[in-house]
Amino acid sequence: MKALFTIGLLILSNAFMTLAWYGHLKFHEWKWFNKLGLISIIFISWGLALFEYFFQVPANRIGFKENGGPFSLVQLKVLQEVITLVIFMVFTFIFFRNETFKWNHLVGFCFLVLAVYFIFRK
């Protein structure tokens, strides 16, 4: 149960982080957003990233083995990275339809999945 809860929190945290890091690249389509300067955009992104921490910190505390969770520190980090890439790909497919993924992107993603396999292998 702690494993699923940790993964769920990591998914939420990465959704906010992806929005904070890349959302502003799409928000320019809103007229009011175009009038903002870089500092304003940074503060908006920072505000979104704050929500990322509301989920990331509990995920790591709950999921970490030394706190009674199921994952080692390395496993937590690899999980987080793969979840980040999955969330990023979904975000890109939904909001940036003009971006194209090529065969080498797919191969790289497969290697990351293999990394998860080897990290979790006993």
Automatic annotation (TrEMBL):
Coiled-coil stretches: none
Pfam families: DMT_6 (PF04342)
Alphabetic keyword roster: Membrane, Transmembrane, Transmembrane helix
Transmembrane segments annotated in the record for this chain: 36-55, 76-96, 102-120
InterPro entries: DUF486 (IPR007437)
Record has Transmembrane as a keyword: yes
Keyword Ion transport assigned: no
Domain of life where this protein originates: Bacteria
PANTHER family with a match to the protein in the record: DMT FAMILY PROTEIN
Identification of the protein by name: DMT family protein
Species, as recorded: Marivirga aurantiaca
